[in-house]
Amino acid sequence: VGKTTCAAAAAIGAAARGRRVLLVSTDPAHSLRDVLRAVPARLAPAARGARRPGHASTARRGGSLHAVELDADRALGRWIHARRRHLRTVLARGTYLDDDDIDGFLRLSFPGVDELIGLLELTRVARARPYDEVVVDTAPTGHTLRLLAMPATLGRIAAVLDGVSAKHRFLAESLGGEAPRDAADAVVDEIARESAALGEWLRDPARCAFTWVLLPEALALAEARDAVAALDAQGIAVTEIVVNRVTVPTAGRCALCHARAGAERQVLAATRAAFPGRPLRLLPDEGTEPRGVPALRRLARRLAGPPPPLRDAPRPRALAATRAATAGGGGRRWLAQVAPPGLRLAIFAGKGGVGKTSCAAAAALALAARGPGDVLLLSTDPAHSLADVLDGGAAAGPSRSGASLADATTVEAAPRRLRVLELDAPRAYGARRERYREAVDTLFAALTGGSRFDIAFDRAVVQDLIDLAPPGLDEVFGVLTVVEALFPEPGRPRYETVVLDTAPTGHALRLLALPGAALEWVHALLSILLKYRRVFGLGELGVDLLAIARDLRRLQALLADPARTRVVAVTRPAELPWMETRRLLDGAARLGLPLGPVIVNDVTPPGCARCRRAADAEARVLTALRRERRSPGRRPCAIIDAPAIAPPPRGPAALARWAEAWECDS
Length: 666
Ligand SMILES: [Zn+2]
What we know:
Layout: H1 3-16, E1 20-25, H2 32-36, H3 55-58, E2 64-69, H4 72-94, H5 99-107, H6 113-128, E3 133-137, H7 141-174, H8 183-202, E4 210-214, H9 218-233, E5 238-246, H10 255-274, E6 280-284, H11 293-304, H12 333-338, E7 345-350, H13 356-370, E8 375-379, H14 386-390, E9 401-402, E10 418-423, H15 425-446, H16 452-467, H17 473-486, E11 497-501, H18 505-512, H19 514-536, H20 539-559, E12 565-571, H21 575-590, E13 595-603, H22 609-629, E14 639-643, H23 652-660, E15 663-664
Parallel strand pairs: 1-2, 1-3, 4-5, 5-6, 7-11, 7-12, 8-10, 8-11, 9-10, 12-13, 13-14
Antiparallel strand pairs: 14-15
The structure holds zinc ion.
């Protein structure tokens, strides 16, 4: 949607006004380098060696700009390394865990950890030099919300660690000794202090301002509305709304431009109504994306100055699809590329704002119409938009979000073979956690003998470990729904194919790398249970963990099998999305995931002079893209063109019509 571009422009603008600025990306799909045309530092220690993109030409009167992309794994490693000895002391004091178990836990890596460590690193880097402003390019919606909830998570971690230490202090004091807070306790205090400070900082409008960036599309507005409300509820104020890529109305009679301007006009009116009292800034669609410091400086002036007047678009006439009529003949060749017969799992991945969810929904509809067998369209993106895409904007459509496979629903006017589920991963994980808590209570209640206090403390520790599942673990369990749908227990419905709509790029990749990491976590928990086994057997929790381990291994095998799994990348015919898509494809290949076709969405059909200019620019990207996919060393893949239509397709009928016009080059 241009989030990174706007963040970079804001940072450059501030530096040009004489401020010392640090620009940080916490989005695991780093596109800062593409936007700046320079490689930012990967958070070198104390931000030393941070490159200064455009330093000389940007800065005035002592202003400066440093840019860094956060490397979550390295940052977490460094954070833990500095505290490992003390964390180990705290954990060893209060539990039966030995050093190997504890190190095993401290080595684990999870997707939510990016967010956690992102905030801590931000403060560290910002303190390393005297910056006036820090501009943060965050991860896409759902994950940003999680980032902002992280201070609370940190606070809980500190509380748990303190609880663990409490046992040690209690025992020491009951033996008549004293247990002054030592260096290990100081680490716990530090975590508690930092989490409180971060929470305050985010909520202080004098020190922290949020800008929401969206496209003038109904889906993007629905997402923005949910997210801004969620932020408000947390006491974090969004101070400005930026609507990017707004079509400037022309006098011509081009059906596409006309329909697009008309549809956007309605969305803009709805956006104004949705955020009363908040400044709304419209950035016109320039045809090309600003890249590099000079172009970004021009955008910065736009962001800082008064909003440009945008003339009213002509009233919408026919809002029908403009390209579908010219289609036909191409048939459903693309479907054989997305899901050849025998395929069980099609994973849709792409950057935010490329229409990934619409493409996944259109493919699932076509697949359900083709048969055989039932199709599950599953979303694991914390910012769900499947329901919005499929219900055609009906405000009172049936809820498609749920905590388990049993909540999957059919869609009106869609093939009966299709079921849809937006997985509420935190809720699903919450239910699981409650079961575990009860199981642990039952087990400890059955224990007799030994010190009462000892048991009480150990029970608290095991409960806390369950509570403190690494952030992001909920999403891993969410993905296990795929296994549940494809390989059901006897008596449960079986799906032939799952179409998976994932969170945007960086998180999708981390999620797909996860079965291995999740297995490690399960094994770590199991090894603790095994220590207690002599006392009370493996219990329900143990049995459950063994089942999870089995499912995770199944998922790993499925993800590695090109006959059953395909990753479908969705992109737009523009430089920045394609650069990120290339990294997605390379990352997926490194993970050993089988690559399917690339869907290039929003390809401008021939039309007015402006459409032709856009089409020419897109053709250059498409040609480069095709040449590159066929170059030696890369596995060739089919490229599917999906035409731009206005308004964007919503509801099964519009999606099916749109997909009729997709064209496949092989
Ligand atoms: Zn046009």
